[in-house]
Design a protein that fits this description.
Layout: H1 13-25, H2 47-50, H3 52-73, H4 76-90, H5 92-103, H6 109-122, H7 126-158, E1 164-169, E2 172-177, E3 186-189, E4 199-203, E5 206-209, H8 211-214, E6 220-222, E7 227-228, E8 233-234, E9 239-243, H9 251-262, H10 268-298, H11 303-316, H12 320-324, H13 327-339, E10 342-344, H14 347-351, E11 358-361, H15 363-367, E12 373-379, H16 384-395, H17 401-412, E13 421-426, E14 430-435, E15 438-443, H18 445-450, E16 466-472, E17 476-483, H19 490-499, E18 503-507, H20 512-521, E19 526-528, H21 533-546, E20 550-554, H22 560-565, E21 568-572, H23 578-583, E22 586-588, H24 594-629, H25 635-655, E23 678-680, E24 687-689, E25 692-693, E26 696-697, E27 699-701, E28 704-706, H26 708-711, E29 723-725, E30 736-737
Parallel strand pairs: 11-18, 11-20, 18-19, 20-21, 21-22
Antiparallel strand pairs: 1-2, 1-3, 3-9, 4-7, 4-9, 5-6, 5-8, 10-22, 12-17, 13-14, 14-15, 15-16, 16-17, 23-24, 23-30, 25-26, 27-28, 28-29
Length: about 750
Amino acid sequence: MINFNDLKFLSIKEKKIFKIFTNSRRKRWIKISSCRCTESFCKHEDFFSKNFWFFIIPSIILLGFSIFMEVATNRVILSQVLAIISIAFSSYGILSEALEDIREKKITANILMIIAAVASFFILHGQEGATAILLFAIAENLEELTMEKSKNAVKELYELAPDESLLKIKDEYKVVPTKGIKKGDIIGIKPGMKSPLDGFVVKGKSYFNESSITGESIPVFKQLKDEIFAASINSDSFVDIEVTCESDNTIVAQIAESIKIAQQNKSKHERFIEKFAKYYTPIILVFSLLIMIIPPLFLNLDFNDWFYRGLILLVISCPCALTLSTPLANIIALTKLAREGILVKGNVFIEKIDEIDVFAFDKTGTLTEGNLKIFEIINYNGIEKDVLTIAASLEALSEHPIGKAIVDKAKQMEINLNSVDNYLVIKGKGIKGEISGKLYHVGSYRFFNELNYDLPKKTVNDLGVIPILVGNSKELLGIILIRDVLRVSAPFLINELHKKGHGSVLISGDNQNVCETIGECLNITDIKGELLPEQKLQEIRELKKRYKGVAMVGDGINDAPALALSDLGIAIGASATDIALETADVIIMSNDLKKLNTFIDISKKTNKIIRQNIWTSIIVKVLFAILTINGLMTLILAVGIGDGGVSLLVMFNSMRILRYKIKYKNLSEESLQSKAKMLVCENCQTKNIIPQHHGRDMIQKENKLVCWKKIINSNELEPCEEDFPLNCPYCKNKLQVI
């Protein structure tokens, strides 16, 4: 496997997602079922399968002659011989599978079918036995073709990346097989060409469509040192990339592998059906024998009649449709979700969505972008640069988005960080450490209040601003004001959840006022802020007492315990920490929260289809069994409808998942990004932070600021008409946006 830590120049979160996803679930790939019609999708086609219709057409012709001989000429023996020859042509695949099942000491549908066909000749019903084998073979072939389509859905993931690459040798490019490319090689990607491998840009810049990886259809601009995924399409200009992993370890390859691994985490339906099928078939075999023996022996009824009914019962009771009902639908759903940039760690988590009543959300990096901005540094007993230097030095070892924002600001200002001794993180509150022998604290208002600092009241309570306090052992040195913005996709997610009848809860470690501001923007009424990780855990426990099922959506280290305790843990993968990815059951690859709605829709559709499959299989089997015992069923109908027909119905019903149309359109956020920070009046020298409305900075449009919801073009959200005139409230002079 590739060493992901070697990619020094990249933000390799997506690669970490797959590394964690694969390693945490890696086991051997197992067969879906013991029944022939549900064996491994990777089964090799034999000679009979490849030349199927060259065997079946002669079988049909011989069977037609057999029936004609008996009906028109009354030559029973000759008709039976022709029926035997017909079976010889059509039964090769069934017989070979039956022999293999016998060697493995398993009783399967193949064995039951062979028994029924052979036994039919003893009561001179050979034509029906031959017809049964013929119909069963055709049904099996059609099932395999349908399952091949499902198998190809996974196979296509491997084939998304091209087989050939433009390898750069000195200043020339040579077309070579992709499998021969090594880590560190330079390859060229032409406009309109798919990237064959993962890498990072070393020359040029262009837009790339990454929809095959993240599900996002909007092209992403890539320039020097930006990461390129295999199968992403170059839209504009020629670029060179340095390869970071070979073909077997690309993101695309790991997605396909993850689908296989996820199949091992089976749902309750699958575990029940596998256990049921293990005992069901032998029991039915014994019961069919009793039907053949008891009525003639003890009730003096016609032997041929009851022997025939027993044969029909054998065929009807084949569990093929039932054993297909769940695993096929699940693997199709896993593949469909992976194409949309949603990774699920097992079938059980698709099934579990039906039990979820409420979704609990973290705020920073989940409902908000987590791309925090420092708007202002307030100084009390120091200078701005000193306050930032102390804060950045202590936050340098932190993975929290707030800490990263402070460190990034220090780097932009080219501030040299100091070494820190006796570094200590106080979970959910802040950090303390020593710089040059002096003790400093960085953290929340609550943290500093507990340390008995003399604190100002007005500034730290400003709505929409996260105050980070900096102090030494004696006094407050300054406050860093940080602002986050709501994800554009968050209102779409919450609105849709409420429409579906799900509740929503906000549980966060951030400032209560900030949490309430975000919660109000999203119509979330249950809002808990300033929570420590153990308090988040307690909130999940309380929710589980009140609701049937609780899902937790988060991305940070402090979310990991809650993700683990919840019934369904969902990580927003593009910003999630490694421990959150490890703990979560579902990973959304992109920052688009609407993908969570897609996961819910596909999972619920899958569960509905599985229930349809199971009940259809059971009802048809029971109905046909009753008709058989009452003498109202024939062997041909039993195979054509009761076994093969139901199996095909289950197959085609499961394939409907692939036809699901994504309801939630991608939104371009470029027009909604505000780089402005302040409103300044040059006349009276006042300045204010850009106001927010509905969780995001207001956007300048002509001579006023307007809510971002007025600019967005969508039928799913009502536009907001809120505006803010760009006139100073004191002197009425025009405000400058900077």
